[in-house]
From TrEMBL:
Gene Ontology MF terms in the entry: ATP binding; ATP hydrolysis activity
Signal peptide interval: none
Organism: Gonapodya prolifera (strain JEL478)
Protein name (Swiss-Prot/TrEMBL): p-loop containing nucleoside triphosphate hydrolase protein
Alphabetically ordered keywords of this record: ATP-binding, Hydrolase, Nucleotide-binding, Transport
Keyword Flavoprotein found: no
GO cellular component, one term: mitochondrion
Coiled-coil spans in chain: none
Domain ABC transporter: 56-308, 333-548
Gene3D superfamilies for the chain: P-loop containing nucleotide triphosphate hydrolases (3.40.50.300)
Length: 549
């Protein structure tokens, strides 16, 4: 019997199995684990050269719009070819199509014609019943753990052991039971730097820890290609280098079979040394493709972080006259000897902090230094705020104040708020959620239109939250936090997912519109992204205040 022909894996909106084989050959069945837009086609091998990992030629990629029977095109005439030995990064601003391209690779979008997208080098995995691509995304939910089944404050409260999901159970889910799996999980967790967290509740893990866990999960389930959507988001500089080095080690070409890591990055994100090729997207089109050296030469502005806002990373300062005058202003936040611990492990140690009305603070520190915990005490989401000497807007915590009334005076954006937001609504309604209760309809609509115009986001009106990119979602949350002119604005890593032009636009808005009596607390790992109005800084290290400027 003649040898079977080479297989070609393709995407299709109508899965079919086509054959160009002798009648005597019976092909294996299409595995049930294939995504609904996958199909396979047999065709004769025409070359002895290595098969490409990804082959996209003149493809039209479309997204299904709820309530409409007609898919909406998101890419037209898309061309891209990835060879086995290449290591690619896809770079582009907000709305460029990075996330949509990643979703395409895991079968979430329609392709026309079906044969225009193929993964020839991965045919054995697919016909064997496995899914070779895994997408690790900031907005990812899964059957293993869904943020939509939890609420934001829950991460600071007691957790029911019967319903909780530990990191170990998250990593082991669906894998064969036994000592072999346990050992492999521990080895991969150690390699990812999360071995000491295996017993920890997945719900209580930090942003950076969750990212490492999702990468580990992708490795454990046998993915051949791991697509990482902005993997450095929310990481401090040392952790960025650590994760970058780790990802490079995962792509060792001598491994059998080798693991491919495809990065989806913003223009200002660091480009790891192990990346060999870059695809640049802009407005759902390919703007540039080529080798790393050519990209660095063609886009030098992407490697000048300080150009994000025009502000350098020098220490903030405040004049002596301003310092003396601010002492006469009322406290918005007052903390005295604040301590927080979990299971006997100290998270915050003897923190004293006075935030006056009109202050503009930068809260800085490495991942795990206690910044998010400190903010949770201010917002009232952490029950340990009632066991400490904390006052907000001059009212001591625990004196009978309504936490919900206090929240109406705060505009909050954080990675956790973004994680837990799953409302099925159009963009303008997300922004309108920040309006004060009782705002007349016409006034509310006018305010929403005005701020969306000022943030240059009118093009997303009418689009559903779930269909927006991470960056587009984050801008909506920023507008929602500002639309009511709150007395206190708390922005924890507000620019995750935003490109330099949007960072600059938002900062200029803050510099123009922030009232003298409004207070700002700004958390970031990139000091060059801070608004120019920030003139005070508190630095945490291992839960202790080590610098106040």
């Amino acid at each position: 019997m003649p040898a079977p022909s080479a297989l070609r894996l393709r995407l299709s909106s109508c899965p079919t199995l086509l054959f160009a084989l002798p009648r005597s050959h019976v092909p294996p069945p299409v595995p049930s684990s294939l995504p609904r837009f996958f199909s396979t086609t047999h065709s004769a091998a025409t070359s002895s050269t290595a098969e490409p990992l990804i082959s996209i030629a003149s493809a039209t990629i479309s997204r299904q719009v709820p309530g409409s029977g007609v898919p909406r095109p998101i890419f037209r005439d898309l061309d891209w070819r990835v060879e086995e030995h290449q290591r690619w990064a896809v770079v582009g601003p907000v709305g460029s199509g990075k996330s949509s391209l990643g979703e395409l690779l895991v079968g979430r979008h329609h392709v026309s014609p079906p044969e225009s997208v193929a993964f020839p080098a991965l045919e054995e995995e697919v016909m064997g019943g496995s899914q070779p691509f895994r997408l690790v995304s900031f907005k990812e939910d899964s059957g293993l753990f869904s943020y939509s089944k939890h609420y934001y404050q829950e991460r600071y409260h007691w957790t029911d052991a019967w319903t909780d999901v530990s990191l170990r159970s998250f990593l082991e889910a669906g894998l064969p039971e036994g000592a072999g799996t346990q050992n492999r999980v521990e080895q991969v967790a150690k390699r990812m730097g999360i071995a000491g967290l295996l017993a920890m509740s997945f719900l209580k893990m930090s942003n950076g820890q969750v990212r490492r866990a999702r990468i580990a999960r992708a490795v454990l389930v046998g993915a051949r290609v791991v697509v990482l959507d902005e993997p450095f988001m929310g990481l401090d500089p040392p952790n960025r280098l650590d994760v970058s080095s780790l990802l490079g080690s995962l792509t060792d070409p001598s491994a059998s079979p080798p693991l491919h890591v495809l990065l989806l990055l913003r223009p200002q994100d660091p480009l790891p040394e192990w990346i060999t090729h870059v695809l640049v997207l802009d407005a759902m089109r390919v703007a540039w493709r080529g080798e790393r050296a050519g990209y660095v030469a063609a886009f030098p502005e992407n490697h000048q972080d300080a150009a994000v806002t025009g502000r350098d990373a020098s220490p903030v300062s405040i004049s002596r006259a301003r310092r003396e005058s601010r002492e006469q202003l009322p406290d918005v936040v007052k903390m005295e000897n604040v301590r927080v611990s979990y299971s006997g492990v100290p998270i915050l140690r003897d923190v004293d902090w006075s935030v006056k009305r009109g202050d503009r603070w930068a809260l800085v520190g490495a991942n795990g230094s206690g910044k998010s915990t400190l903010l949770s005490l201010i917002t009232g989401d952490n029950p340990q705020s009632y066991a400490n000497r904390i006052s907000l807007f001059g009212v001591p915590r625990g004196s009978g104040e309504s936490i919900w009334e206090i929240k109406t005076r705060i505009g909050l954006v954080s990675p956790e708020v973004h994680f837990y937001f799953h409302e099925p609504m159009p963009a303008e309604r997300v922004v309108a959620m920040g309006l004060p209760a009782g705002t007349p309809k016409e006034e509310g609509e006018e305010r929403v239109q005005r701020i969306m115009r000022e943030f240059e986001q009118e093009h997303v009106k009418g689009r559903m939250w779930a269909h927006l990119s991470v960056g587009e979602q984050r801008v909506l949350l920023l507008m929602r936090s500002l639309i009511s002119d709150p007395e206190l604005i708390i922005w924890d890593e507000p620019f995750q997912g935003l490109d330099p032009s949007l960072v600059s636009l938002v900062n200029k808005w803050i510099e123009r519109h922030l009232r003298e009596d409004q207070t700002l607390i700004f958390v970031t790992h990139s000091e060059e992204e801070m608004p120019a109005v920030v003139d005070r800084r508190l630095r945490l290290d291992q839960g202790m205040v080590v610098e106040v400027v």
